[in-house]
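Sat 14:20. Reprocessing the chain from the morning session after the first attempt stalled halfway. Input below, unchanged.
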Amino acid sequence: MTNTQRVIQFTLLSAGIFFSIGINAQVKWINVDAGYGPLPPGFHVYKTTDSLDGKPFIAYYAIADIKNKSLQFSADTTYKRRLTPTQFYQKNGQALLVVNTTFFSFATNQNLNVVVQNGKLVAYNIHSLPGKGKDTFTYRHPFNGAIGITKKRTADIAWIYSDSSRKTAYASQSVVEFSKDSIVESPFEEVITRTSTNSNATERLFHKWKMQTAVGGGPVLVQNGQVKITNNEELKFYGKAISDKHPRTLMGYTKDNQLIIMVIEGRNPGAAEGADLQQAAQVMAAVGCIEALNLDGGGSSCMLINGKETIHPSDKGVQRAVPAVLVITDKTR
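Finished this time. Tokens:
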């Protein structure tokens, strides 16, 4: 990655078995470090105002060197309340970067996805979704994606099982089909003993996921550098919602250990239309992500660099209070 103007040519990327839509457009990314400084070595900010599929498009991404020990990557969360990104920024000593992460309940302010803070599991994925109508007495049990960083400063995206009775989350490195039954909660032992057959060998799917920092969302968008959206397995968006354009918060990492955090502005007619999941996935693949994840979007999407907003929040320009954020701190300041 350089600090110069970057032009990325989107090609007709494979969309896996779920989607077959392609994007054929040029998106020009311009370095905007000067507008958000001072910035430490190994950290940069880029912006685009190019069109996407002929529609107005505004997006920013920050890129941070995970191996740079002057950068500290952490998660912060609240209990039974929510804070705006600016409040999290102040709470974390005026952090270099603050961005929203998990989906959550407006009624309870509860995180609906996993959060690992300082190596401790502090929030959990919701694994049981009650059926409706004739399926009232059935439950679906999906496994949502999450992104984590280890103590050794390596990143990973996986499908997570987390249980409040356990100190550690468990992860599968391959997508897991949801199950459907009449049991409210899948027994822990049943989940972690799930197996798959690979190369004529039976292997356990779930293993301990030892992360120093992690946040969840879903669905996973990019795997092995290719667009493969696992919404069907994660049950995040139903029906035509997967094709709706919205503000987005996205996170992924490159093969050379660069964390990429992107926010896409939306719901701003004539200026920024947002992106659907397919477009979001292809943008992340095009900037070099080998794995990428969708996080809570819409009115929650907000990224601050040195306390300054990037995209314009879609809730009438007002930051939405959220229960969890990813924070990057410059330890040299």
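Residues 37 and 306 are 7 Å apart (CA to CA).
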